[in-house]
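Researcher: Good morning. I'm working through a list of sequences from a screen, and I'd like to move beyond sequence-only analysis. For each chain I'm collecting a predicted structure so we can compare shapes side by side. This is the next one on the list. No need for commentary yet; just the structure.
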Amino acid sequence: MMFFAPWFAVAGILAVGIPIAIHLLNRRRYKTIEWAAMQFLLAAMKKNRRRLRFEQWLLLAVRCLVIGLMGLALARPTGCDSTSLARLAGRSASLHVIVLDNSYSMAYESERPNAKTNLDQAKKVAKRLIEQMSAGGDSVMLITAAKPAAAVLAEPTYDLSAASAAIDRVPQSASGTDLAAALDLARRTAETHSEQPVKFLDLLSDSTASAWRGDDAAALEQLGPKLAAAYRIRHFNLSVPGATNAAVLDVWPTTNLVRTRFANDFAASAKAFGASVESSLLWTLGGESLPGGSALTLDANTPQQTQSNAQIRTGGPTVLTAKLSAEDRLPIDNVRQRTLDVAAEMKILIVEGRRGATELDGSGAFLELALSPPKLSGDAGAASDSYIKAERISDIELGGKSLGDYRAVLFADVAQIAPAIADALAIYVKQGGTLVWFTGGQVQRDSYNAALVPRGLLPGPLTQRQSGPGYTFAFNPSGNNDPLLAAFANLEKSGLDTAQSFTYWQVSPKAETKSHAVLKYQASGDPAVTLQSLGDGRVVFFASSADAEWNDFPAKPAYVALMHEILAGTVAGSERWMNLDVGQRLQLPPAYKLTGTPSLRDPATNVDTPLQQANRPDGTLVYESAILDHPGVFTLSGRNGSVPISVNPPAAEADIRPVSDDAIRQALGNAAVEFEGADLPDISAVADTGRDFGWSLMTIVLTLLGVECFLAMRFGHHKKT
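Model: Good morning. Structure tokens for this chain:
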């Protein structure tokens, strides 16, 4: 037995003494005086004494009972309904929170009676739970667990028909499961409705590993004990025994940069969860079919599939698609798209700190020749056939340039860096740009350390110059080298292992930059080339010069190849923002140039929706869309031409294999959980729930008040004799 407001019960018990005290005081109010006529009255009274005493005690008992039961009624006692008394006299008064998983795995076609999908069956179970509740006594809260988790009802409602109608309106989502956020909403509901001592939490999901063992596992483990302290928890497992799902989990280019006039390889991950599946993987690029499509046996361990030597003729955004030929009971993940931003002309900026009398005397001249060589005419000023379009300027001209126009910015022997320039470079890199440093004789250590190190634009402070007869790279063609050096694997005479640096700047890497050495010097072990990430971009540091001032590397065949590999491996394909999961928002990069207000066309409705302006965490104003709630290739407009935006269902949700009940209990920090199946709960076998006796007690109180009025009137009037 529990009470909603136990102090009312205490107050009622104490107040029972009030009519008793009044009765006793009433008896002492009169003084007995003997006189002659009184003797006759006393003789008559003795005949009715027993009847009067009985009437007084009966009236007193009724009044005490009214006050006592009034306190108990206001306290609203509750008890389980497993007893006959509770079933007869109690009225259910509990808070029921229903967490309904509507993530895309719940669209699995289970084909149960009158329920095509798992979500349809979950809705039937949820509505049956509501049918068991007591109208006017039980309240219901409905929360959906698809990302982003949301409270369908703003507050728990006593209108059970409205709650049942809300369940019917829950949509089938195409996003993943956000179970931690959904359960946190349940926790907050318990805190804000602590006056209801009896609470139930019903979880209806298909028990997928992505929900219970995903990135939110730590949050679920912390939430479990808190929920168990507030709720009686039940989990209804909607999964289908022996279910199988085949899916394309990812599709991507095998190189960091997709370029025209180059052979580009693509890869896809396709698997089947459950039993193995026979299917074919069909490729399309820009709407045109690619070779392939051979039969596959898909299972959970199927290796990645490769599409080789796809030639791309034009630059700009295009869509790569991988699709399974076989359909299954969860078709939403049988196809996956990826938008590629093909580089037909990649603009880079070379900033040189030293210039000479001729074009080739500048500290960045060898870089320009290596990355963007002139045509075969031999004229250094002739146009280049390279996909890289290099622009070489002096450091004095840098202030007038918009860094966002370039995919990479390279510095060659620039003497010092002004704080304002360093700030602009930090923003550029964090937004996805690539920054490359080459040192040289003009570099001023103190300026670099003061301006670049605090902003994360160097792996660490420059310490001192090292000079010697010649430092070679510690490079073994057949060894375990950095991925940026993959093009040099097993090439014995590339020149990368024989190039010598006579002078270089020693750098002391800081742990927080998380930089790593791509190449080191053989004798000293000092970093020769380092790579680090900063925001969405990369920073590359060369300890020596870009020309022949400090080394003989530019004369080696490996120089040109290494410069191209460094850029190809670090320049981020600008398509990252063009590829999203369902449940995310499209957010345009700050550097994205617009000619008008951007809009996004939905492929399902063919309707254009304008993007709205929003502030990024760093204060930058950008355009963003509403949450994208279904997959497909959307179309962005707002400048010359349109851009395809690929939206896919989250890959982790494709694994529909359920985890065990014990795994769910452990995921909730070993909290007490009752486990049920997907069958409808039997109304005749209602689980023990809280019964509120307050309603019945108030009915008794009102009845007794009527009895008390009748007795007071009846006993206070006697017939004349």
